[in-house]
Design goal:
70 residues, mainly alpha, 3 helices
């Protein structure tokens, strides 16, 4: 979560990679809150909070996975 190879679009690329991996492993793509994560608002705030929790404790991705499936 802390590596940013692109000046813009890191989140989109990361979510795409996660979706492709999920599908490759036989699961459905993530829903990522079911809304536009680029727009400011409650859903983006929940996404950012989940990312921060994952950054703080990479061994516990519960919040991020819960959001990704919401």
């Amino acid at each position: 979560m802390q590596i940013h190879p692109f000046a813009n679009g890191n989140g989109r690329h990361s979510r795409l990679a996660a979706d492709l991996l999920a599908v490759e492993l036989g699961s459905k793509p993530f829903t990522w809150g079911g809304n536009n994560l680029a727009a400011a608002g409650e859903i983006r705030a929940r996404y950012i909070q989940a990312l921060r929790l994952a950054d703080q404790n990479p061994d516990d991705l519960t919040a991020l996975l819960t959001f990704a499936r919401s």
